[in-house]
Amino acid sequence: MHIEKTIFLKNKWRWSKFQKYIIYRLNQYDFQEYKIPLEYAYKESTFGSRKNNQNAKLCTWAGKNYRINFCRSVCINSPSYCVLNFLIIPKSQYNIPFLGIDFVSLPNYHLIVLDFQPSLSISKQFDKSLLKELITMKDEFHQKVPMAAKMSGQIAQFFSPGVIWSKLPKDEISENLINNNLYPTFQKYLDLYLNILFRAEEVDLKVQKELINGQTQYLEYRKSKDPARPMLKILFGETFTESLINNLLFKII
């Protein structure tokens, strides 16, 4: 099922305008949608007790172009969980980090992660001007939106100094912060990322090999340690969850 026919581009889904902006911006770069296997493209399920059955919907939107090896959005909607998980995997000819977005509404709070996620060391992949710009945007955002607790060392290695990382209660104040602060910052991050990616020059074969190894290490880590795994199992069962994670979400196509 095409995403246009689902709830995920309609205003009643929490993260719809974010996904709409992703599609709008990528379509400006000769973007071609990737044909996703039917079992991952759209899925509905019921979960919970017999007395409190709830419906969950999942849609995966994906594509690529001459500089993006693969990118995808996983969109989930249910009464208790609402998720936009987006990742860009750039082609290894360009020394560019991943773009990772996780906007997750859980029963009691929103979890916000937005970052240029490194596939090499920070010094090898970020020049000083880019780091300064990212850190400035992060600091401006977190002047108004509280930062979550510090990430653990093992997880922190996969994030940049410009990571936006917040945990917000589900209340009216947070809704205003998401609409008035998170959304414009998300637009700036995505615009900056695409601008850098499509201006980058190709690197030599030695660096390309390093990038392939770095990307593979990150994707293998996510396959084994993906924090969304427990939630996905609740909503869609273990078999589908493991298949989705291993065969689509963190696989270099």
Compact overview of the structure:
Helix content is 42%, strand content 24%.
Quickly count the helices. 9
Low-pLDDT runs of 5+ residues are none
**Shape by Cα distribution:** globular
- Global Rg: 18 Å
Annotation, overall tally of beta strands? 8
Summarize the biggest pleated sheet.
Answer: 8 strands, antiparallel
Mean pLDDT: 94
End-to-end separation in angstroms reads 21 Å
Structural class designation = alpha+beta
Order of helices and strands: HEHEEEEEEHHHEHHHH
Report the helical percentage. 40-55%
Taken as a percent bin, the fraction of beta residues is: 15-25%
Describe the overall structure.
By secondary structure, this protein is of the alpha+beta class. The chain contains nine helices and eight strands. Strands 1, 2, 3, 4, 5, 6, 7 and 8 form an eight-stranded antiparallel beta sheet that branches. A hairpin with a 4-residue loop joins strand 4 and strand 5. The protein is globular. The mean pLDDT is 94.
Short descriptors:
single chain; 253 residues; alpha+beta; eight-stranded antiparallel beta sheet; 9 helices; 8 strands; 24% strand; globular
Write the layout of secondary structure elements.
Elements: H1 16-26, E1 32-33, H2 38-41, E2 42-47, E3 54-64, E4 68-77, E5 82-90, E6 98-105, E7 109-117, H3 122-125, H4 128-142, H5 153-156, E8 164-169, H6 172-197, H7 205-225, H8 229-236, H9 238-249
Antiparallel strand pairs: 1-3, 2-3, 3-4, 4-5, 5-6, 6-7, 7-8
